[in-house]
Amino acid sequence: MENIVKQLKITNKDLKEAEIEGLLYLITTQQNLDSNKLIQLSGLPKETLKAFKSSFGNYLEDSTEKLALNDEGRKLLGGLELHPYSWSILKLSDEDLVTKLTEIRTEHNLNPVREYDQWFATIESSIAKAKMLEAKGLVEGKNIALMGDDDLVSIVLVLMGAKFNKVTVFDIDKNLLQTIQTIADKLEESDPNLRGVSKRVFTKEYDARNDFEINDLETYDVALTDPPYTRTGVALFLNRCVQLVKSHKDFSGSYIFLNYGNSFKSPEKTQKVQEVIGEFNLVIEDKIDKFVRYHGAESIGSASSLYVLKTTPTTSSKTDYLESRIYTYEDTKEEKFPFVDHYVFKLNEVPAKVIESQIALQKAVGEFCKLHKLKVVKTDIERFKPAGFTVTVILSNSNLLVHTWPEYKAVHIDLITCSPIHNKEKMLQSLQNLFSTQKVELKKIE
């Protein structure tokens, strides 16, 4: 077994050996396996699995979609003890709920609306979302908000007999909202144990680009969202969730469950999402990879990760998320930005020999650029009366701006670059040495 796994590793460098063994296990154990099913089971992107299939093609039956071993493949893998791979570290399901939700999905036959970035989760994933709420103690007696619910998590909570105080679904899809209300009414009529439940399930037609009604703000204990997978979409929907949940001055916190999916070959997108989360001063209490599986969305492995976010006393919403294009089909320009590093430095107690001397100041700025390989194109310096300088440095990849206040022994530096900064972890130390002060504050803007 070790030999075939290592051979496949040579042409599948992005996969771990354990993942390769896991794929071989699925091919040998799953009946009627096709490419889409393999994507759902593994959570790996379509292109990654296409490359794997090509590298193992000599051992598979000739088929564009089906994945079945040929005679050579059966001979190769037949005597091996292959081990399954844990594609997700947590699975929550319930066979009875699977049956009930499947019947509901079949009866109502909803279709995903691509203009709203809808990809329906599998039945098991819809149930897992609700079960995770329960596992975190966020159901009984709680107010639950769903920013979009094409996965029918609200209905799963009803089917569970959950003793929530209220569930509110905010969605732009009017047809979906009507269907959810109809299902809740039918369930109440058919099961005496669910008497009154339809009066605790609310639906509101809502476009996230608009403000909430005042009585919706800070009302909920937890909010769930599976937003459009653009940076602006994630930021906007997360901002709305922050507005919906209750604020806390202590550390008990409210919760936001955020689902986000992207190919493991695009880690920069994950980093951007984590930056957005940090902007709201939210804590990532848990992150569960490939927690939700979808029908479709093969480019991201038909899967998304669950971020369990907890509010802190400093969590607050923003007022500057006004971008109108939030859905993937709109091809937002922001998603095409290759790289931006933006830092702000505040220096205090800078000695007069540096801050009051044009020569010393220019030397310090020039040395900083050399140390961190910031290629200088042009430098301008302006002297102000009665004191103070502004140094503008045009870089080959953006700019550096320095302003001084001699009367306060203070220097402010703003650095923006569109290429990675050399030894950026040592920038603070460089400024301490060059400006002869230990009092340097650093803030990463982007």
From TrEMBL:
Q: Which residues form a coiled coil?
A: none
Task: Give every N(4)-bis(aminopropyl)spermidine synthase C-terminal domain span.
Answer: 99-332
Q: Which InterPro entries match?
A: AdoMetDC_fam_prok, BpsA_C, DNA_methylase_N6_adenine_CS, S-AdoMet_deCO2ase_core, SAM-dependent_MTases_sf
Keywords associated with the record: Autocatalytic cleavage, Decarboxylase, Lyase, Polyamine biosynthesis, Pyruvate, Schiff base, Spermidine biosynthesis, Zymogen
What cellular component terms from Gene Ontology apply here? cytosol
Q: Which Gene3D superfamilies match?
A: S-adenosylmethionine decarboxylase (3.60.90.10), Vaccinia Virus protein VP39 (3.40.50.150)
Question: Which superkingdom heads the taxonomic lineage of this protein's source?
Answer: Bacteria
Query: What cofactor does this chain's UniProt record say it requires?
Result: pyruvate
Which GO biological-process labels does this protein carry?
methylation; spermidine biosynthetic process
Recorded GO terms, molecular function?
A: adenosylmethionine decarboxylase activity; methyltransferase activity; nucleic acid binding
- Spell out the protein name for this chain: N(4)-bis(aminopropyl)spermidine synthase C-terminal domain-containing protein
